[in-house]
Fold these 4 entries.
Entry 1:
Amino acid sequence: YEVNADPLVIKGDLLLAQGDKHAARDAFEAAAARDPDDWRAQDSLATMALEEGDAGEALTRSERAAIAAPPQVFAPRVRLASLYLGAGRADEARDVLEAFAKANPDQPQPLVALGRIAFSEGRNEDAARLFDAAVALAPEAPQLLLFKARAELNARRFEEAADTLMNGKKEFPNEASFQFELAGLYGVQQNYPSARDAFAEGFAKWPDDNRFLVGLRLANYRLGDFEAALEPAEHLASRPMASSSDHFWRGLVLERLERFDAAIRAYETALDLDPTSWVAANNLAVLLTDTDPDLAVDFARRAAEIAPPNSAVDNTLAWAEFS
């Protein structure tokens, strides 16, 4: 019993559930001292260190937990891989995950983690292959199909990405993300009529999902159908929690429709909500140059102060000051 850490681990879990982190830490540390190979104690201490921002301690504890944990337990190993990634040790992260995948060929989790690493590194072909293997092990998980489609898209395998998304729509008809990402795929291919139709289909089925309205606004704008773009732009900007971007886009559509007074008010609202919106300030300067040149100069200078190096902003300022 003196070398059995179970009672201390259980005590730590109970104290942690009650919100007493200090006492829980003492219990876990006592458990780890009693049995350094108790992976549960080491893993709990790693989690607590991570929450407190002590990455070094978290890494040390995670290494011990990963070594001691039963071969089928994934949690301490994926945490270790994540810490290795954060420390710039991607090769070691992959080694941990690949070893687990080899020991557990029926588990999709390490394949997903490896796929996400590959995706983040721009190795899209590898990512698609890994996600495909994970889908084969867990066909009931829609997120894996989405991961696969995104990797295929980034690899510019557009037909395969479309097939994956269409299969996702068929297998998971209540998952809006397949419809949304299919519409986005059409947009990436600059097939704006198909993108518009797909966004419209999604909005008809999921009217509370504002992603489809955002897509409809953009697709119609790209098609030059500004009247059609105005309806979703007005809807998005009328929401109580409408963002600066929503009001900016409303202003942009109104400007294209030559409804300049309404566009100015929309840009002003966008700038009020986000004082760093240099595009709103720049567009206000452009619209006000003829009617209120002094105010136009103020907005142009404001845009120039907050914008990254940008010739369009410089040109607006020069013209406003000239006017």
Entry 2:
Amino acid sequence: VEPLIEGDNLVSATASDSAFNETVDTLTITYDSFTAADLTGDWSFVGSGFEPSETTSWTSHGTLRFDDDGDISSDIPFTGTYSTDPTGVDSEEISGQLTFNDDGALSGSALYQGETLTIVDGRMDDNLSMLTLATDRELLTAVRQGSGFAQSDLTGKWYAYSVSTLAEHAGGDGLGSLVFDATGKIASGSINYTFSGPSVTFRGKPSGTGALSADGALTGTLTLTQSKTLGISGPYSGRMSTRKDLAILAFTGSDDLGDDDAMSSLLILVREGGKFATGDLNGHWRLEGVLNNRADGVVHSGYVKVLSGKVAGGELDGAPLATGSKLAL
């Protein structure tokens, strides 16, 4: 099938084989249909946020509980907790409501410390196990809480993707991996960070521990060592998804010079495994991201359409994405 896509419409599509050759015009792309019941239950989140007026940034974590009132046309209320303390000892209550839009997107508001925050965009995955929510200054990634987890579910290699800030430097990202042994010890791996403003590269060799509780909660310590004189260490907390192939962590580390807030990092861990092909990328993907630093920041949202391993369309923050870029697995 060779489609011509403009915006959210499939303008034309041609398919052919020995018995079929037809052109179909003006087909409309349909979106997954979600209901309030799909959100019902308890979720855990980690976040990455910034406040330019105070030149501060942070990582957060907490919980959300959604109540289903049975009416998809109305707001879906939630309550929960929110904390920027990596140990979770110091937390505050939050509340709010979300609404599903026609295209499956979420929007709404949250009340935290007497301030109303606007949730400008949000998405849930097809498996109803992962959720992203974006305000104008923070991006939250949430996974549904579950049960029946064991420490052995953490064992193995996990690919790590991170949004971070480092001391006085601007925001950056990190890529690498963590390998947990059967006891929860971080046995090997590496996470390489690149920060801008001024440019700094931090190549961390990880060590530490991880404990997975029966409800999927993750706690532990992480040390990232670049050299004998440069290292960052601190606690983290997070949650494993019910599919046991993804985990989210919020980490705050101090350095060897005594800076207690040397690094704030949101980490998403994806378990190694599975067989993939470039064709698995085909389709309509939502994009949510955050550029996080202490002096400025922006939350991004948009979508990308992939066909035959190439970007066939999309937009980010309302601007069209360049087409033709090749993607491969």
Entry 3:
Amino acid sequence: QTAAQAAEPGIAAEPVAEAFVKAANDVLTEVSADEKATKEYNKTQLEEQRQAVSAADQESVAMLQRGELSSSADNLMAAQALTYGTENIFAFSDRNRPAAKKEPVDIMALLARKANPELAAEEPEPQEETGSAALWKKLENMEEFVTEYGEITESSMESVEEATFSEADSSMDVKQMQLNHKQLTVAAALAKREEYYLPMYVGDRLTRVHLTLDRASQEKGTVTVGVNLSQEEHLQARLTLNNGTVHGMLFGEGKVEVMKLQQIADNFRKEAEGSWNVGNISTISSEKRMPELIKSGKHTPTESAELYRVAKVFLQAVVRQGESA
């Protein structure tokens, strides 16, 4: 397969997304009864796009280059939203998933507790994460994760398209759905080079994980993980697996506490030692958010399920720290 052939899916996806955005704008114009309001909305949109272009940082441009997408205003806005946001970009797809089946009520046990109040009530089992919020757990199996990520991204795009035409009640709704669709378009393009965006709960807080995998050589691979804990807290890790040994650097940026960072490092070491040798795991704090440690240029497919497992073990360490906080 030539490089040009490999790039075709990413290139073909963009006209489709552009056509969708144009169609949504056409619908918005048609349903708007007030011509003055429509002109004002278009003026606001244009100004926001100009601001997006002027404020676009190098990370956003680099992201679009990695996905072989143009640096249009819409794409730049989507790239920035992916970098700094915490909302679940797959939320529309999750809405359409069938509800999880509930366990049947044990009538006899219920009657026994009513007859004997002194009997200790059973602790309810914690609700298992489902849908896109559980995607990160699939990293244990590379093939399963890659397949499900692709499927949920595609179904999310379809769900957003349907919702734009059936549920949008205002120009603001259309605008948000367009941005969501464009974010999914960028995410789908980046997935071709093993770069993923995942929702993940840390305690009861929804965070966004930015995961990138790359192979430096036959023996060495790298996992880069960014976690948006909030607008003011960002966690970043660079983990290397080389001949069965894991090394890593953890960066706590913004208001991430040093103790929290060390607890995550300790959790990761403890979990990782069950599968690999663990070398130096260092922690570094920074008051400001640092540029993402992502390699640019040509991507070499990892073809390594072990690297995906390293990513899963690290995210598990982050979750466990959040549960104990």
Entry 4:
Amino acid sequence: WSLLRLTPQDFDQIIGDSRVENTDDNMFVALRSPWHLFDSSDDVLAMFQPGNEGVLALENVSLSANDIAALALSHMWRRNDMVMAARMAAIALNSGESANGRIFTAELRNSVYNKDKNKISSRFDRAVQLEPDGYFPRVARAYYLYETDNMDKALEDVELALSVEPEYWPARRLKLDILIDMGRYEEARAEADILLKSPYIELDDEVWADAAQLAVKLGKLSDGAAEMSHYLQLSPYSPEDWSWLEDVFLRLGHEQGSRMAANNAKLSAINNARDEHRDARYLEHMGEIDEAIESLKYIITQYPDYEMARADLARLSGATTYTAFQK
């Protein structure tokens, strides 16, 4: 949602003296506002200028260049909408230099254009210079440093960010990943414990799996088994995680638990195969035969005993221009 990073004060500034208010009985604007309106009467639509500038299309909006660039980043990261992100970024950059504007141009160059590391790094560095006491520019730079295997500097940035905003989940989650990759398991486990106690844990189930693996690395097999079991209740889709749990149960001498985990590993594998098979048949239905064949080949590589995929591959192997709608 593109408004995710706005504060209540920002909302007050945007909404202003609006005559319409969201209630349970009369939802005025849905979460994808202002594109999805449940009230489409003329007086309501008149509040929005023509075009697709998101919240910037509301009347009497006065946001800083930094806030507009933050919205551009939200469109880039949360919606994967580069068209809208670019339009908002253009407004932000024309409004003046800002930390978030520099982050946007760095991310754009990193993800879309060339991978000139010097230019990307200089933009992140400038963002930090523009907001030296802020936490977000340092976290953004830390992600890039982590991505480019510069672990020490990434950790330094993320720790400085957490000193400013200890509750910022992305920073602490990134710190956990960095410490794991650096092999600093005791420190990583301490970070995992903080995350597990956070109300935001509901947003990131995989922390339970990371915590479980750290527990086992530190010799706490029972804790690891309990935490992985909890994770697999929330997300029971990984055969590898079920097999990992099977091994831990065996090491604990828990035969019943190991059999259960082994059985669920097989079930999750066949369920994954069925999901991918469904996608392959959809590709066939849409006439994308080459893509369907490649998908079926991948399924058979991963799940050699899945005969239905083999049968479909044999049936399609000679097809080149088949379209289901022409049958």
